[in-house]
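Below: protein 1.
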Amino acid sequence: MKKTGFLPRPLMRRIYESVPVPTVDYIVVRRRGRKREFLLGRRANKPYQGKWFIFGGRVWRGEPLEGTLMRLMRQELGIRPTRATPLMCQTYFNPPNDMGVRVHTIYHVYVVIPTRTEIRLSRENRQVKWFSRINPRWPKPVRTALEKARFHA
């Protein structure tokens, strides 16, 4: 039986079809002169494969949201925050994942100022890039979070 991380694939599919999945997502922000910039990753996997997206992942059982944030920042980008501020909580039904399921996701989004801006790329993203403006073609969860963080198109 093929596994997905910790659980067998059929069980994971059943979970995705049955209950919402809580995630912690984060917007990495820096200041360059007078301009604020945010970091996005071009996703390597479905449901947002090839799209620019904020960083984040699932909350593990028993893990506090702040613990999830620290774990994900270390795993995905190799950074730590000097400051992490809760921004919003929003639910979405994502496009189909690699199992063909539209997962009901509960995004807990933070704005993060990192201790340093040298990034270590992980396998979740093909590339990372700093932006200062929102592209109206980006996925809705990304645009919504960036607008809430006071970035503009």
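Below: protein 2.
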Amino acid sequence: MSKLDNNHLRHLALEVLLNDVKTISYEGRKIRKFAQTVSPSLFAEIIIHLDQRLITRFSLYTLLSLCSKNRDTNRTLKSFLDEHNMHAITDEKQLEQIASQAIQENAKQAARYKTSPKKTLEVLHGQVYKKYYGRIHEDMMTEIFKRLLNKNE
């Protein structure tokens, strides 16, 4: 599970910013308000957390939206993450427990993994994301699901 390389990180940050700016301007807000409410230091901290995989890509979208709506420019990233429970789950053992539980709860679909791996992974991911809304990196969970499902064959 490698860290994002610099080019990928820049691309991701730019993509998120462009999408958020579009959303904000479509909601009738001025883009200038977004720039005023998300300080460069807060944005830099968000990008560092993304690079260190302490937040997920989904959390990044949510954070930028929350920051743009927040009027307290001195608010810390930690306060946003704590208030909205957006810290990524990165502990391998905890992720394995989550994956095992999803497989047990969806045993019928898990049994179809050999014949329909893509559909099985989609269903299992869906179940996990319902419970852990935006807190799990998709690539990490996919790797764990594959390992557990291949072990069960």
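Residues 104 and 110 are 8 Å apart (CA to CA).
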